[in-house]
Each structure stands twice: as structure tokens, then as C-alpha cells.
Amino acid sequence: MKKSIVMAALFCGTLPLLAQTTAEQTLKEIYKLSLTKAKCYPWLDHLSNNIGSRLSASTGAEKAVLYTKAQLETLGVDKVYLQEVMVPKWVRGEKEVGYLQLGKQKITFPICALGGSVATPKSGLNASVIEVKSLEELAALGEAKVKGKIVFFNRPMNPEFVETFKAYSGCVDQRSSGAREAGKLGALAVIVRSMNLRMDDLPHTGATNYGDFSKDQRIPAAAISTNGAELLSKSLKSNPNATFYLKQSCQTFDDVLSYNVVAEMTGTEHPERIMVVGGHLDSWDLGDGSHDDGAGCVQSMEVLNIFKNIGYKPKNTLRVVLFMNEENGVRGGKEYENQSAKKGENHIFALESDAGGFSPRGFSIDGDEANFNQIKNWGTLFEPYLIHKFVKGSSGVDIGPLQSKKIVKVGLQPDSQRYFDHHHASNDTFDAVNKRELELGAAAMASLLYLVDQNGIVTQ
Amino acid sequence: MKKSIVMAALFCGTLPLLAQTTAEQTLKEIYKLSLTKAKCYPWLDHLSNNIGSRLSASTGAEKAVLYTKAQLETLGVDKVYLQEVMVPKWVRGEKEVGYLQLGKQKITFPICALGGSVATPKSGLNASVIEVKSLEELAALGEAKVKGKIVFFNRPMNPEFVETFKAYSGCVDQRSSGAREAGKLGALAVIVRSMNLRMDDLPHTGATNYGDFSKDQRIPAAAISTNGAELLSKSLKSNPNATFYLKQSCQTFDDVLSYNVVAEMTGTEHPERIMVVGGHLDSWDLGDGSHDDGAGCVQSMEVLNIFKNIGYKPKNTLRVVLFMNEENGVRGGKEYENQSAKKGENHIFALESDAGGFSPRGFSIDGDEANFNQIKNWGTLFEPYLIHKFVKGSSGVDIGPLQSKKIVKVGLQPDSQRYFDHHHASNDTFDAVNKRELELGAAAMASLLYLVDQNGIVTQ
């Protein structure tokens, strides 16, 4: 009986009156706490400015594991522990060099190796450049026109999309698969236009994937800044036979032991039902990973801080997971699921913040129609906090592997306009994060977790 | 008949099917144009980086008038003209000096004169400091405790408000009325905590108002940075008798002739019905006024550029007004209304963008219930563009004076979290504006004007 009333109310877009009032009051407390006593901003300050970049297997990543574990321990939650996971170790090496030789003139370009790329020969490599806009265009050219050349992928992110992540999805195949596909056709290297909607001089790194290529089949892959890409394209039009010199010295070493950092408030009524909230602790090596994804980590930690401070004890177990190695392997996310499956754990809900610490706009919901409607119907509770956007879609890369039967997965959706200005680049730094925007994101996450904890997850 | 169908449809939250489809298509064109071919960002670049700050009666303001007029003329609209207006001329003078003398130690603070403030004596002034949190607290202290002292207003913006403008409203009386009220009690000067939610070292200026005080009754008023305010408060607690040295040399001169810049597309069906869109061209003198309000000006100009480029000819006259002197007098807004009233013009709608060039979230609507519902019901058309917020409230300072009988006034509401980090401070600069966020704001404005133009304004 009770359930059907709750269900009916949910589908009318409201909670029962008392629950509604209590929820309104709790959200108010959550937001007040987050905007006045949050720890997420000083935590991020430390992660970014004292530790810095946190590429898997780096000293920074190691320090970040110890620091966040220690900070979580100060919150007085029920459990804090590390979960072992083997991660890849890729090292950029010396600053990359890239220039176009035009007679006696050299035009130098801002470039950086893509993550996972192999090095060039020690003395670098020299080759003429062929520009393409897509993998399809490359395939159409065929081996005859590609062999022995550097392939330059120059399809920009489409500015017409209001959501920048759509523009990213429509573009990132050049970075992830460009080297593999060009390698098949005998290219010597690839240069990929940075995934950035802004015109500037910063190359943006990110993973490239060689598939099942053996080491000696792999060709070097570099990113070039957006301004650099425009200039290179223009220069090649006037000088199609100019040669490009590329030198990078990156290396891949044996896998290294690292950790996911985990902290829990045990559920008072259903300790066996787990709600996960997390982000990824690793970052790329160029900036300090403040937006990607220091923000998501400290916001997840903040949920515990908020619940502790407003005295809220979740009915279900609330587990914060700071995943290792999202950027170049998702080993943390996969290992978390492996261990969880082995233990037969029951995850009912997972929330990830991995889209930057910008003003939160809403949530992307990966669940069935009933799950979506349930969360969307909480919209009126979120309206005073300017959370308006409830859409169906993917949640987060780290919680992606989670397979529990009825799990609902959600991604926080902050404003996306500035995200790719910083993504994987040297300007992903603390000064680009606004304290209040970060705190509002944490409050939105805590609010959603509170509502899930109180109301459970409906099923169709 | 037609009208009642339209009205019924409007109140059901939809337009008639054909109108809905046409509107969807037009909004798509508007957004596409704005995200790919807008001129607002390069216009703002020029205003900010080539011209710089534009305080009324300054060279910058004069150059901005000529530049924007010339740019509007390139758009091929029906009329471009200047409207004369006399504006105040206040000049900051030499860099201000403020320090606390603690025995032999001097602690120097980041301060700046408030706009309109009088100077200190040439050699500066020295006095002990009394800290208050409000005008009420000041009044309660009375003349005995205030006379001969510097009053330090130190009430911070309340971080609990999600909307930062609410926090600003709750705080700004210290800046606008502090000097007048302290002057009545015989204070020598006032120092006011900057209206800034962020802790940093930048003093934020803004207008102070002496009411009907004669020149010799006016006392100097300065802003102190938020970090400075915290430090001053702490220092005074340990050294309540320490004296503060303040020196500023600002001056007010005779009023100067300046201009509102106006451009029009004449209405094809109702040329006598005017829709105004605008921002203010003047800025404070510390930064380059990119957010306040270069952004609003170039977005308003962009509406014309968009309409021209998509080939949309408004039925009603669309008038862009770049108002002069919002910051310290609103003379432009008042003169525009004076002239308009003299000519008996019929304004049906006015839209102002003066809350920064950040990601647009929605509109604040100043009209009756029917006007509000009409605009709110267009919400579904705006949803793909992440415009979700339709609230009742004030519109803009410059369009405030407009008195036409049935006018509806609307303010663009961008995300407000970062606005007061930059407001009236030296970091209100071009680099703090994101190109896409600016363009999305312009597109939202053009879309709303299109919908008003097509559907008219309903009345109760």
C-alpha cells in the first residue's frame, strides 16, 4: 500500500507532502553547508597546487592516493581503505619538438605526444604531411598516398552543438584511432588537431589506442594546438611538399601497483545496498587536473563531509570511490567492478562527476524509463538551486563497468562551455575553478544521493 | 478568432503547430549563426583590448561611441545615430594609498576610491578605525563614537544565496550609502569591504551616493579587497587604537556631452511599435569592462547581425541602444526615456543584458502575469539551448526608466556565480569572457526578440 502511494506520487511529479517538506528542508541544509563550510575547494587547492598532475603510476598519483585517504580519514566515516589495481605507466619524456621546414625557414608548432604514443627515433623523423579531415578520408586515400608520410588529422570540433560533449564525441576518433588507422597504411606518424573549441596555442593530449598492434607496428602520435592546426593547414596549402620534423621521446614501462581510494558510511537500514559516488583521481600530466577530475574527486568527498555535518545517516551504504587510471586504461573502474562482482555486492546507484567543476546544470541518467521519470520528477526540489536539466544519457567512464542488476547510473552535468578549453591541456589548473561552482556541484550530488537514499530506486 | 486560438495555445504552453515548427526552425538558424559567424567576440576584443575602460566622459567612452557606431553602420541596418546626453565626469587620479600604522610597522591594503568619492586632503588623512557590519549598527553607535574616525563597513556578501545578485543586493547599501550616513555622524572617511564573494586582493569600485550633501559635507570613500577586509578586521581586534592612513585624489568635473548609440531595423508591419535591446557602453575605470557591460553591448549588436544574416525582417521596429553612463548616473537610460516620451514613442518590449557574458540560464521578466506566462510558455522552444530559467523580477538599470504603457521588460540572466569575482574590479577583462558563452547569450536574446516580434505581447 505504502509503496503504491509513493509510486503514484512519484509519477505525479511530487513526493508525499511530509516527504516533500522534509526533502526541501534537507536540500536547504545541504546547500547551506556546502556554500559555507565545504572542504572541497581547499582539498582541490592541495591536490592541484601542492601535488599537481596525477598521471597513473606517477609520483603525483601516489601522493594523491595518500592525501585523499588521509583527508577521508579525518571525516570520521565508517571505513576508509585502498583497493589495489595495476595501472599502466607511460612517461612523456622530453618536451616534444615539431616544426615545418620551408626552405631555410622553420615554423615551430605547439605540439605534445598523445598519451600512450610511442617515441620517434631519437633523432626525430622528417616527412611530408598529408592533411585529412576524417578516418574515412584517410581510408579512401589508401596506402599509395599515405605510406611514408605524416598524416595530419584536422577536423575541428563542431561549434554548432550547444553541448560541447557532442562536439567532442564527433571528433575524438581522430585522436583515439588515427594512429592505428594511419599506421595500417604505412604512415610514419600522425598529428591530430587538439579537441578544443577555442582557438589558442595549447596542445591537448589524451589517449591514443593502437589496438592489437605490436610495438614495432606503432607510429608516433602527437596533438597540435588549434591555432597550430590552422597555420599548418594554411602552410601546407602553399607548400604541399614541405617536410615536418617531429621528435618525441615518450615511453611505456611495466604496469605499476596503484589504488582506488574508498570511503564508506555504512547504511543504517540496508548496509548491503550500495550507492557509489566518485570521480577519478588520476589526471593527464600537462596541467594539474583540477577540472579533470580533481573536481569530481573532491566533490565526491564533500558529499561525506556534508552528510556528516548535517547529521544525515544514510539508510543504504554510501561509498565514495576515487578511481585510478580513467585517462589511460580505466583500470580502476574495471577492478572495482571485478572485486564487487566477486563479493556479490549489490549496487543500487552510482553517481559520477567527471565533466569539470563548473556550474552544475543537471544530471544525465542511465537507467530505464521509470528510473528516469523518478529522478526527473524530483526536478521541482532542485529548481531553487538552478538544477534544471534531467536527460537520458551516459553517466561516467569509471562507473561504466558496474554491472549490478538494477543499478541506476547518473552523471553530474555541469555547464560544458568552458570544459574543452582546459581538457587535457596545461591550462587545466586550479585558477580555472570557481569555488562556488565547485560547491554547488557537490551540493547537487549530495542532494541527489539523499533523495535516492530516502526514496529508493523504482523499477518498471 | 485567430487571436483567441493563439491565446489558448499560448496558455497551453505551445504555439499553433505551424508557428511552433517555424519558431523551432528559426531558433535553430539563430543559434547556428551565432555559434559560427557571430561578430560579438571580436567586437568585444576591440572594445576591451584596443579601447579599454570606458568610464563616462573618458577618452575610452568617446572612442567606444565612435567604434560601435561605425560597426553598426557596417551591418546595413536602416538607421544608426547618436543621441546626446550630458554625463558626469569623475576622475580617480593617482593610485590610492591605504595603510594601518602599528607602531613602526605599516600594513598596506589594496584599496581604491569609490566612484564619485571626494579626495582626501592632499597629504592624506589619519584616523582610528571603527568597524561596523551595517548602517543600523553605525546609527546605533551615534556621533559620540563615530566622530573623527574612519568607519569600516565589513559585512560580507552572504554566500548562502545561490543567486549571487541577491547577495549583492543584501550588501551594497554599505557602498552606496555608507559615506553619506557616516558623514552625518562626523566620520572622516569610510572604507567598504568589496562586493565580492571570492577572497582575493582586488578592491572593487562602484558608485557611492552623497544624496543632497554639499561638497564640503562629503567624506572620502574607499573600497578594500576581501582579503584586505579580513586582515584589517583582525588587525583592529589586536590593535583597536591603530590609525589608518588614507590618501586619494579623485575629482569631479563639470558634466560633459556624450552619447547613447542607437541602431534600428524598421518594422515591416508596425514600424511604430518599438522593441529595444541594449546594454551599457560605459564601464568602471579599473578593468576594461568586458563583462560589465561590454558583453551586453556586443550581444545587443549581435542581434542585428544575426537577423541580417538569417534574413529575418522584424515586423516591429528593432532598436539597439548602447546606453551611456549606467555606472554613475543612469543618464543615458533617463535621457532615452525623456526623448522617447517627448516623441510619444510606443515601446512594446525592452531587453537588457547587463549581468555578464556568462552562460545564459534564462530571463527575468518584469511584466504582468499574462506577459510572464507568455514568455515562460516559450520555454520548450528554449530547452534545446539550455535556457531553463523564467522568473519574475527586474530587468535592467538602463531600461528601467522606460515608461510606455504596456511595455514588457526583460533581463537576460546568465550564470551568476563568477560575476562578482570581476564586477567593478581590475580583473573585469576580456580573458574572463568565454566566446561561446557570449555567443549563446546573444542567440538567446535574438530568439526571445524573434518570438516577441512574431507573437506580440499579450495583455491581461
UniProtKB/TrEMBL annotation, chains A, B:
InterPro entries: CPQ, Peptidase_M28. Residues 1-19 form the signal peptide. The keyword Nucleotide-binding does not apply. Keywords: Carboxypeptidase, Endoplasmic reticulum, Glycoprotein, Golgi apparatus, Hydrolase, Lysosome, Metal-binding, Metalloprotease, Protease, Secreted, Signal, Zinc, Zymogen. The keyword Endoplasmic reticulum applies. It is found in: Endoplasmic reticulum; Golgi apparatus; Lysosome; Secreted. Residues 260-446 form the Peptidase M28 domain. PANTHER family: CARBOXYPEPTIDASE Q, PROTEASE FAMILY M28 PLASMA GLUTAMATE CARBOXYPEPTIDASE-RELATED. Homodimer. The monomeric form is inactive while the homodimer is active. This is Carboxypeptidase Q. It comes from Flavobacterium erciyesense.
